[in-house]
Amino acid sequence: MYMKPVNFQGSTVADPTESPISCRSAAGAPAGRVEHPLPTRSRRVRGRVGVPLMGVATEQELVALALALGARAVQPWSPAEQTLATAASTVAPAIVEQFREQISAGQDPLGEVFCALRSSVERRPKGATYTPLPIVQAMLTWAENQSGPDRVVDPGAGSGRFIVNAGRRFPHAQLVAIELDPLAALLTRAHLASSALQGRAQVLVADYRSVILCPFSGRSLFIGNPPYVRHHLLGQNWKGWLTRTAARHSLPVSQLAGLHVHFFLATVEHSQPGDFGAFVTASEWLDVNYGSLVRKLFTGPLGGSALHIVEPTAAPFPDATTTAAITCFRIGEHPDPVRVRRVASLGELGALDGGRNVSRERLDAAGRWTPLTRNARKVPEGYVELGELCRVRRGQVTGDNDFWIADEETDLPPAVLYATVTRAHELYRAGRFLTDSSKLRQVIDLPENLDIFEGDDKKRIEALLRRARAVGVHKGYVASHRKAWWSVALYEPAPILATYMARRPPGFVRNTSDARHINIAHGIYPRERMSDRKLTALAEHLATHTSLADGRTYAGGLTKFEPKEMERLLVPSPEMLT
Ligand SMILES: C[S@@+](CC[C@H](N)C(=O)[O-])C[C@H]1O[C@@H](n2cnc3c(N)ncnc32)[C@H](O)[C@@H]1O
C-alpha cells in the first residue's frame, strides 16, 4: 500500500524522491565507494541459534515485524527498504502486540533485537552503537530547557531512540530521521508509527553528509549519536569531501578523522543561526590531533555551549569501555564561558546543567581539552599523562580460568597455547623485566575458525570442546557472549604489564618475552611506535614513581587502579624519556 507522504511546510510530495527533505546527494557530494555495505543475509540470533530473542530469530522476521507495526506509514520509502520488505517473512500477531506494548512503555525492543541479531563486531563498520535511554532523555531534557524546537533532525537514527523520544517530548515539532542502513531505517519507521508519530515524521535513507534538508524557517534541533567509524574505513571521496567542506570554513582537517567528525561538520553545513543541538560521541576528539576540527567547530560555527564527560564506569556505550562526551551547541552563538562537567553515572546527568566555567579563550588555546574538564592539578614541566602516550587495557577475561588455563601435560598443538601472565605475583616476582615466559602457565586460545586444523590436532581440539560442553563451559556468561564461545581471543602482548589491585603500589614490568596477560593485569600499549629504550625508561619511571595514593583505595586498604586511572599517572614526555 502506498501512503501519501507527509506534507511539510505546505508542499505535497507526490513522489518520495521529490520530497522537500530529499535524500538526493548534495552538489559536490562524493559518489563511489560505498562505506556501509547493505545487509542482505539471512541469519539467526547469534549465540542462541534456534532460540529467538523475544520471538524474532532472523532479520527477515524483524522486517516483517517492522511492517506489521506500521513502518509503511512513515514516508518516503527507499528502494533498499522496498527490497528488504519484499523478502520479509512472517511474524505472529501476539509478537507484534508484545512489541507494541513495550514501545508504548517507552522501551526500544526493535533496537534490542537488532543488536542481538548483529553482533557489535558486525555493527562496527557502520558505527551502530545504540544509546542508552538515560542519555537520550538527559539530552532531550536539555533541549526542552532551551525552549524547544520546531523541527528535530536525528542524524544516524538507528532504531529511532532519539527521534521517537523527541516526538513524544515536542508534540508540535516535525521529525526528520536520517539513516544509511535500510533495516535500521525500517525499525525507526516502525518505532515512530507505533508511537503514533507517523503524521509528522520522515525517515530518509541517505548519507547525512550529502542529504539535502529543505529550507526551514523555524528552529531545528540536531540531536543524536553520530556513528564512530575509524578513518581507514572511510573512502577517499569522503575524505576529499571533509577537506573541501572544512576549507570553506577555513578550518584545518586531518585525514585521520573518523565519521563522527564528518557528522559535526555536516551539522554546521545543514544548520542555520538559531538552531541548536546535542551529540553524544566518544570523547577522543577532545584530545587527539584529528579532533582539532571538532574543537575548532565547537569554539567557532557550531557554537559549543557545554561539554558533559561521562566516565566509562557509567557504560555510556554498551559495546565499549569508552569515555563519552555530550556536546551541547547553539549555532551561530559564541557562549562564553563554556560549561564543563564530568559524571561517573548516568543518574548524575540530570538535565545537562551545572559544571565548571571554562573560558572560550582557554579552550581555543589548549591542544587537549580533557585536562580542562578536570579540577586543576599541578603537572611538572615536561610531564604528560600516561594516557597521552599509551593506552591501558585490562587483560582478556577467559570466562573460566580452570578450563582455559592448560594443564602442564596438555596434548594440544603448541599453536593454540600462549604463555600468559595469569597471576599478579608472576609480575611481582619478575621484578622490572619479564624476559622469560617459559615458566608461565599457558592459556588455550583457539581461533574462531577451527577448520584450519587437521589430523591429530583436529582430534585433540574436538576432544577438548567435547569436554568443555560436558561441563557446560560453553554456557558460561562470557563464553556464550563471545563471537565463538571457544575462542578466548587474548590481546596482543603488551610491552609493559602492570598489576592493578593490591595493598602495595602496582608492579610495572617491561615485557620483552611476548607474554600475554589475562584480566589480573593491565597491558600498557603505546599509542604510537616507541623505541625499546623509551619503553624501558617509561616502565622504570612508573615502577619507581607510582604510589598507592594515585589509585582508588577500598575498605580494608586494598588499592585499585582502573585503566583510566592508570592513564592519569604523570610521566615524563617522550623527549625526556631516556
Ligand atoms: C551510533 S549509531 C546511533 C543510533 C541511534 N541514533 C542511537 O543513538 O541509538 C549511528 C547510526 O548511524 C548510521 N550511519 C552510519 N553512517 C551513516 C551516514 N553516513 N549517514 C547516515 N547514517 C549513518 C548507522 O547505521 C547507525 O545506525
Give a quick set of tags describing it.
Adenine-n6-DNA-methyltransferase TaqI, Chain A, domain 2, about 575 residues, 22 strands, nine-stranded mixed beta sheet, globular, binds S-adenosylmethionine, alpha/beta
Structure description:
This protein is of the alpha/beta class. It has a domain at 390-576: Adenine-n6-DNA-methyltransferase TaqI, Chain A, domain 2. The strands form 5 sheets. A 9-stranded mixed β-sheet has the order 3-2-1-4-5-7-6-8-9, sandwiched between helices. Strand 20 and strand 21 form a beta hairpin. Mean pLDDT is 88; it is low at 1-29 and 31-51. The structure holds S-adenosylmethionine (SAM). S-adenosylmethionine binds at residues 36, 126-131, 156-158, 161-162, 178-181, 184, 207-209, 224-225, 227, 259.
